[in-house]
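During the second year of the project, the team shifted from modelling isolated chains to modelling whole assemblies. The rationale, set out in the original proposal, was that interfaces cannot be judged from single-chain predictions alone. As a representative example for this report, we include one of the complexes processed in the last quarter. Its constituent sequences, exactly as entered into the pipeline, are reproduced here:
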Amino acid sequence: MTVGSLGPHDDRPPPWRAPAPGRERIVVSISRDIERYAGLFASRTKVMTSSAMRDLMAITARPEVISLAGGLPDTSTFPPETFAAVAQRIAAESCAKALQYGPTEGLPETKECIAAVMEAEGMRADPEDVVVTTGGQQVIDLVAKTLIDPGDVVIAEGPTYPGAVPTFSAYQAEVVQIDMDADGMKVDLLEEELARLDREGRRPKFIYTVPSFQNPAGVTLSAPRRKRLVEVAHERELLVLEDNPYGLLRYEGEPLPPLYALDGGVYVMYLGTFSKILSPGIRLGWVVAPPPVLEKINLGKQAADLCTSTLSQLMVQAYFEQGRWRDYVDSLTEIYRARRDTMLDALADHFPRQAEWTRPGGGLFIWATLPDFIDTTDLLARALRDNVAFVPGEAAYLDGRGRSSMRLNFSGCGEEGIREGIRRIGEVVTEQVKLYGTLTGEERRREPVAGRQEEGGAEVVRMPSRAERARRATP
Amino acid sequence: MSRVAVLKGGRSLERQVSLRSGARVQDALERLGHEVAAVDAGIDLIERLREADPGVAFVAMHGRDGEDGTIQELLEILGIPYTGSGVLACIRAMDKVLAKHLMLEDGIPTPAFFAFNETAFRELGAADALHAIEERLDFPIVVKPAGQGSALGIKFARTAADVPGALVAAFSYDDKVLLERHVAGRDLAVSILDGEPLPIVEAVPQSDDFYDFESRYEIGRTSFVCPAELADPVAERAHDLALRTYRLLGCYGFARVDLMLDSEGELYVLEANPIPGLTETSLLPQAAEAAGIGFDDLVGRILELAFERAPA
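Output from the structure prediction step:
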């Protein structure tokens, strides 16, 4: 054993790397290097900057950290014998095919599996209208690539899926974020915003929404709002990108119709994925879109990666043929429901009464909002000292809002970890609330108020407004 | 040629920067013909160093542990020569409050400040003194964690209402914070190598947001001018103040001293960094480059200095 590792794993590079014989000293000019590369960067990379928050997030991966920051499904629940059987079957029956390129739009047999998943949520899609993609993330990228010119407006929820933020930024979209409450995006606000844009002579390229168990807010667009949103799309001839990774992970209540089912595939483009119902590692998603849009998406995909992994597609096919995919989703639902309940209980036990959080009926996330004097990016630095992590709310906004909120994931961590993680976060939040009270003098003035404890679980997504932000203590 | 252990990463909030600094240093050391081992400082640090038995350690860690004297103390115990400042200088420089008190005592201009532990607020009612502090410092006030090396946790309070939130944020990073008078002006960095000041780097933020600290050290959001365009007497004074600060704190090998130049032409020393960044965008390598010292030469010189220091 010798020194030389990037981490605790054993796949280290050889410890003592001697230089090749005869290699001379090379004087490297750093600043000239920077200038040389910087001169080559496309102008759109100007918005692709690193940030302190991303540096902080990198620390959350340390093994001793209880991370409620990820969005990971628990793949340890997948039966290894099923994996073996699937792999065995591909090796025996379609080895050469699995190792080969496939059509850009995807294999017909994979599209049958997609049809089955969509049918489980009451949708019917023509296989001709489907393109199989490398994860759902690729759909966001391809739709943006197809539709966005620099400066174009895209409408999204506020907060929106943090993973979509760098995509929209890279295509230089101007993202307008519409506030939400417990019933999802406030469609009346959306209409006001569309009217305002109209007056400016601007027309959004599309509306991006996660209607069910939204990432990060955990809330679900109500049935009346779904109906109204689709009507608005028809009235204004606006495209909608419905991102639905969590629809089948419902822990209570009756399913609501997807926007795609309400619209019939006229203005709604549908994004689906196997990531949360089977595996994110196989990188398999899909898009359903009107043929002219799909044609462009297909060309974009061809340029990006020619085709989605054939091996992954055949694995899904072999797995679906076993006929037990719904049972697995049901088993996940059981596990995640218990974890959600654990997190909600822990929040009620450990977060101070000034905090609010959503109560998701499904999906993977809870969105908690703290008093506005707490900046959750700074709080994350404090929380990391206690080895616990979450996603700061500002990651879900493009305009600097969300600074007092956090996204908490309950799928990637066992119940014990969830309880302990929330306890630790609750402790630092409580400490900061108390400190603030001391600093403002409120702590000494305030009489103890009885009977206010039950406020905590209110079904509100309190998204800090721009005005609030302007009033806030610090930039 | 030597066996060099490059210490990087660690648990500090500047872990990412440190990993980049370490990687560049490793490459340079290999080009210089040394045997190099990278060590991500973790729970098994001592075990790894004992097994490796390096002739010298290159400390490429920033922030907590790497820059505050902790790693240096461990290397002293193990008897391994190491690059850069020793334990005492690291303790003095990393604690901005201590460093500023030393500067005041020595007559080095530094912005007026007050510093407190969290317990002062919790147990001694220091909040009651905030008003007096605000009157003495004038707004905007800069609120900083005492021991954080990067811009993380640094907040501007424009009015009295902003102060409590800024303090809560700063206390997220350290148990001790300082409230400092804000000096508006030009942002200068004087890097020092082996007791000699290098050409001055000026950081010019692209953003109009005067208070946007985060943008300062990102490619494309801040441009760096080196050598900074300064009148000779100003540049000389900046060099002199930086060097005095370096000596006062007892720095060794290399360091970077950050200063502000206000509109009246007055210079103020903000802080000294015993292990400034060594990445592509870092200021010390840029300054060395401007002085005709390539990155490999810089790394080679820093390593030689580790041997020149009398072993502990």
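The two ends of chain A are 49 Å apart (CA to CA). Chain A has two domains: 52-77+327-442+456-471, 81-321.
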